């Protein structure tokens, strides 16, 4: 007896093979049969030629705290997402040293959001236990993030780690890997990640091969320093013998458009040398991050408290203003290459700041009769550094090329912000892939698009038996109409829900039906396999 049979669907199994008409049967949370099924079932659902596909995997998100606050994950579930990978870009809420908890919070909150959930964990493993016991509706996997490791060991000091600090970082990383993390993520754009040399990072990565862990890299510069930054992470991965995921590849700033082709060549060459490397991309020409990232790296030393002190000091503020006016060789000044008219305020914390959400900095500065640089610095002061931005700095041609490339996984890179005007990718990424790139532009076939959000990320991020519709795999399934699946979210109305997705199952349990959640929370924490050598867990 099967639990559920979905009949007469267009089965797109995740492998990239052509679809076929058939049925999918589920039993005890797993796929029991695929093809023509005549077994008895408690529930039979007529697909009416809709697509039946594996649940979508969002391989790069910042839902680390949001999932604890919103365990039903409706924002992702409504897009057909059944699994998320968190702990990206060197940003995560664990591990931490109690004396430096405030430092860590100020570091992660602009990206993963503030949360009322008590931080009852200290290590990465304890955080994973909290995730598991929160009974989320979707499955989750996590990296150990580099930022918290460095803050726990040495705060925001801009210097190399000494031996004792490196030992602390390795120990904390090892703890998380033993607990089942899939690897380590680094965010070299953000301080304190930006203070770590490639040699220091390679030494830290030496922990990963014992646990089959991978390195996920938010590279140092995505603008003028793009090529050097990609070469740096390739060097780290080859030096330490770890698989590499180059995160949200882009060429930021008009002067750099087209350079993604060079990045893809570097990846292809590295693969030819035997390095396990791929990349991911979100299908939008705007990015989103914290406003502090536009500042010179030296201005970010010591964390947000120190940043705010510098902004109050006329001499240091003057230096920041001067550097923001010109292109820089040492770091990517995206303001100089892109312009303040490309930077929108997406979320702020004060009532005054929230009135500015959805406006670009140039517009705000004109309204206030102020210089845009001063306007941005004043805003940072007013909001205690907690300003999220949406950043129009990519070319559509580059994005289209990356989305269609065979070695790219499609991700949302959604931030944990529930206020203001978030980037529409949070609410629209996966339906957009099918509406724009399959149906409208015909850059991908239906089967290719499904592979990029199912079996490819499942294999890439070592998520076990997921991402394919084959017997004994987890019954994470989405059913949608390929002719109507559409993202509703726009930059002006970023929280509009998508349409065309009719049913979602996680581990064989229905979580969404025609836009309404079922109230079930069948997700699980996916722990990476035990390490290669004889480590005892």
What does this structure look like?
- With 537 residues, this protein is an alpha/beta fold.
- It is built from 19 helices and 21 strands.
- It has helices spanning 66-69, 74-77, 101-112, 124-133, 146-154, 163-178, 198-205, 226-240, 260-272, 304-312, 314-324, 334-338, 351-354, 361-368, 372-382, 396-404, 425-440, 446-452, 455-460; strands at 2-11, 20-27, 30-35, 41-46, 51-54, 56-58, 81-86, 139-142, 144-145, 183-187, 214-218, 244-246, 277-281, 286-290, 343-347, 388-392, 408-410, 477-480, 501-506, 509-513, 516-517.
- Strands 1, 2, 3, 4, 5, 18, 19, 20 and 21 form a 9-stranded mixed sheet that branches. Strands 9-10-11-12-13-17 form a 6-stranded parallel sheet.
- A hairpin with an 8-residue loop joins strand 1 (2-11) and strand 2.
- Helix 3 (101-112) runs antiparallel to helix 5 (146-154) and helix 7 packs parallel to helix 8 (226-240).
- It is globular and about 80 Å long.
- The two termini are 37 Å apart.
- 55% of the residues are buried.
- The model is unreliable at 530-537 (pLDDT under 50).
